[in-house]
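Homework help board

Subject: predicted structure for assignment chain

Our instructor gave us this sequence and asked us to write out the predicted structure in token form, then describe one feature. I got the tokens but I'm not sure how to describe them. Can anyone check?
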Amino acid sequence: MLDNPIARIDRLRVEFETKDGTVAGVEDVSFDVNAGETVCIVGESGSGKSVSSLTLMRLIEFGGGSIANGKLLFDRRDGDALDLASAGQDLMRQIRGNEIGMIFQEPMTALNPVFTIGRQLTEGLRVHRGMSKAEAQDRALELMKQVRIPEPERRLKQYPHELSGGMRQRVVIAMALACKPRLLIADEPTTALDVTIQAEILALMDRLKRETGTAVMFITHDMAVVAQMADRVVVMFRGRKVEEGTVEEIFERPQHPYTKALLAAVPKLGEMKGKPLPEPMKLLGREQGEINPIPGTDKPLLTVEGLTTRFPVKGGFFRRTIANVHAVEDVSFTLNKGQTLSLVGESGCGKSTCGRSILRLVEPLRGRVDLDGVDVMGLGPNMLRDERRQMQMIFQDPFASLNPQMNLADQVAEPMRNFGTHSGAEMRDRVAMLFDRVELPRSFMRRYPHELSGGQRQRVAIARALALSPKLIVADEAVSALDVSVQAQVLNLMMELQAELGLSYLFISHDMAVVERVSHNVGVMYLGRIVEIGPRAAIFDNPQHAYTRALMQAVPVADPHRRKSEKDLNFKPIPSPIHPVGYEPEPNAYEEVAPGHFVLTSDSGY
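My token output:
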């Protein structure tokens, strides 16, 4: 590794003007990023990690911030060191995307909804590299293959909304790598990805870094990813740098109490061995009573039988249905009252569609859904609206699911207003109580979604889901965008609420360590089918299906001495879930390998 900094941040201070006066987003922060080195910046949401990266790209001015002090020295391709803090926007336009690539956290907001994927991928190549249309197309196709997107030729013609979250994120990564930048800033690039793709993206970024000598500034809250990727780690807390060291020093000999608390909050795979029931995490620096496992009950609340959801693929002059996407295929399971059933699998495997089909946010083709004795599939529009009080959803992307024009108190009160359950002072008290429950200060009730960090927005979404006291909550990747300490608190919060209110969760996730922590039962999904389902201990201690084993193999471990190399990851490419009209797959057949532990015996395609 060469000791020549490509980027040097020196005594940076960034200020924001708010209703309550000037706030320092980052204060007196200094660190270097050398060529061929990965520097991971870790900390909670709101600690100033993203602010420092946006400042380096000089995008912070567009977000209402201003650089009050400090230097941002960047070593350009032609060898001149440039202070980006004083560079003009015209010069920054040449540098952005060309010499500094950026992978943003939320792929849907980073992509333009009105242009095809191909157009967005080729744009930077044509502007910065002067490529012809055909050359740019070829390079775009090569990039799509590099980030392992299935059917890349077809995807280039599609629009962002036609891709799953994980695929969109891979497109954003391909865009950032397109011009082979000297410095790659990755802001939570694998947050929304499932473990297998995350493992591959991390290996890909690591390989590109070694091959091209690119410097990587990697912003994350996932300590397992830090252990996998980092050469050096910078720990940030409330806008300041509290600790910096090599990855081994930080993991083995953390000095600052905040770093210690951060490492304590990481759920580790295998921690729950020998414990049949989920239990809340022990958090440092917080008084906790007795930690009790959550037994739940053995009374079924939700029974799903033969759920099948398909989406038509239109084509031809008359926009006829020429094929179907088999998103959910013959899925059956039972969720008991007061328990958590987790669905895990890669993006595009049908987990989210399954959750949405149960709530009838997406209309299934067929199947039976029984929620506490009510046949959800047989309800008319008015009855369904009433029944929705019993089932709520926490969405993956809180920014997209909250209304940017309403303050947060109104958003949490909205379900109660819609159903007329509370009003006046009683409603205000309940909203305040919900804010207390999700551990947000009451002063936030006047704020708007854009004034909160990702983790705080997700808590608002949880408060809103709890407003009507539902029986079932479908949590669709509810904690995937949160940082570890907030994730641990939100998981504990969800489990406390479960123990207290007898809530049942259908927990959709790709984070195996989190699933191990919260679940009573686990279903593993692949290509729309459940390939293995059973009690959590059975699935984690004795995985039977080849795909479940591959999934376990991909999970990064929060230990820098146990890094995964690319040769450990031998995933098969995911076949297409699109089949011609009239194609009927064989029904799912399962073998019971242990009490309650079922494995798919009919061909799953893996």
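Reply (TA_rk): Your tokens look well-formed. For the description, you could write something like this. The domain at 312-544+577-600 is CATH 3.40.50.300 (Rossmann fold). That's the kind of observation they're looking for.
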